[in-house]
């Protein structure tokens, strides 16, 4: 019965094409309506653009010690993906529910919304909060704003379950994700006179080479016994665009790169090293020829990871709810570290597998949805 209701909610949620580049307001209002109907106090927090919003809601009395159920409302695009059926129409085949966002992570949101009666019961023991954000897939932009607001409030939730797809396994650590766009401004000219210009592509390549040196350092810095897979902080050069033609000194280049740090120290190390390479080496050389040349760095997002802790009440709660007693670390980024950064205990556990996320024919199995409903349902009877 509950599974049927939840499946219908998931179908509705998948029907909202809430790709990160587009507005998420329709899906947020749908979720808000359901939460309000269940008696929750709902806040829709608009971003400055007016096209995006976070939702924060509370069931039960507003007091300290509450539990947050957290998910992101946005999904990745379906561009250039070969889907068997329409990605924004939920389709059931062989016990699996297909659609964009099925596992990442509308499945978990549907399980929450399908359990509101039980969660209202659970809210008698402690407040149950819902945090549904925008723009997780493009750097956790919504969650970064949300935690700033929550941090200032007199009443604070204590625990957070992030329902990212973990096949319902418990994870108490994830790497961070820091994304940067670097723009190189050179001076164009004829390729026959390279000394008179500043080749932006060339400087971008030198910058990249320095990143690769730092990547080798990160492997050496990796602490023994790191539970992450792969164990060290990783670094990726994702895109490089620049230049005009064979015989023109490239006036501009743009580079997109990221690191996935296992701790804040690695994040600081890479940032400081690359910044001093720019200041002490690249910029002086560029400006000796062209004073107008420059390198500017735009931070797309700097999301701290979830650092595994010895004491973690959110992990212990999910252990009790699911009967598991082992927690792992995931390599993909989540919003968990942001909640941890404002003093909450956070854990990641949700239906569906990351293997299916972001791909064509994304799905969540009915079995996984049942497990998620069972976990949430047990909150109604759980103590602590
Ligand atoms: Zn996700």
TrEMBL record:
InterPro entries: AcOrn-deacetyl, ArgE/DapE_CS, Bact_exopeptidase_dim_dom, Peptidase_M20, Peptidase_M20_dimer, Peptidase_M20A
Swiss-Prot/TrEMBL keywords: Amino-acid biosynthesis, Arginine biosynthesis, Cobalt, Cytoplasm, Hydrolase, Metal-binding, Zinc
Domain Peptidase M20 dimerisation positions: 173-283
Protein name: Acetylornithine deacetylase (ArgE)
Cofactor: Zn(2+)
CDD domains per UniProt: M20_ArgE
Keyword Metal-binding assigned: yes
Gene3D superfamilies found in the cross-reference section: 3.30.70.360, Zn peptidases
């Amino acid at each position: 019965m509950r599974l049927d209701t939840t499946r219908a909610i998931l179908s509705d949620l998948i029907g909202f094409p809430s790709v990160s580049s587009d507005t998420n307001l329709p899906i947020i209002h749908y979720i808000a309506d359901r939460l309000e109907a269940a008696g929750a106090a709902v806040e829709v927090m608009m971003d400055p653009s007016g096209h995006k919003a976070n939702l924060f809601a509370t069931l039960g009395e507003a007091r300290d010690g509450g539990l947050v159920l957290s998910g992101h409302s946005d999904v990745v695009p379906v561009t250039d993906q070969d889907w068997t059926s329409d990605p924004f129409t939920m389709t059931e085949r062989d016990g699996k529910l297909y659609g964009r966002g099925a596992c990442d992570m509308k499945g978990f949101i549907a399980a929450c919304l399908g359990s509101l009666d039980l969660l209202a019961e659970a809210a008698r023991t402690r407040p149950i909060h819902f945090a549904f954000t925008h723009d997780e897939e493009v750097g956790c932009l919504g969650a970064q704003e949300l935690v700033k607001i929550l941090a200032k409030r007199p009443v604070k939730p204590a625990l957070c379950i992030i329902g990212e797809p973990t096949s319902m396994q418990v994870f108490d650590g994830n790497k961070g994700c820091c994304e940067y766009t670097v723009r190189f401004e050179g001076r164009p000219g004829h390729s026959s006179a390279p000394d008179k210009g500043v080749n932006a592509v060339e400087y971008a390549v030198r910058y990249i080479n320095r990143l690769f040196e730092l990547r080798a350092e990160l492997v050496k810095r990796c602490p023994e016994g790191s539970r992450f897979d792969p164990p060290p902080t990783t670094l990726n050069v994702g895109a490089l665009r620049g230049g005009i033609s064979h015989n023109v000194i490239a006036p501009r280049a743009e580079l997109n790169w990221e690191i996935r740090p296992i701790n804040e120290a690695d994040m600081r190390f890479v940032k400081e090293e690359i910044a001093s390479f720019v200041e002490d080496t690249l910029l002086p050389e560029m400006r000796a020829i062209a004073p107008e040349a420059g390198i500017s760095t735009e931070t797309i997002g700097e999301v701290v990871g979830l650092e595994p802790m010895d004491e973690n009440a959110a992990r212990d709660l999910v252990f009790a709810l699911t009967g598991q007693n082992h927690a792992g670390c995931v390599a993909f980024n989540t919003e968990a570290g942001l909640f941890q950064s404002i003093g909450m205990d956070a854990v990641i556990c949700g239906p569906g597998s990351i293997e299916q996320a972001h791909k064509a024919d994304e799905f969540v199995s009915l079995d996984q949805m049942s497990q998620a409903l069972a976990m949430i349902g047990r909150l109604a009877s759980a103590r602590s």
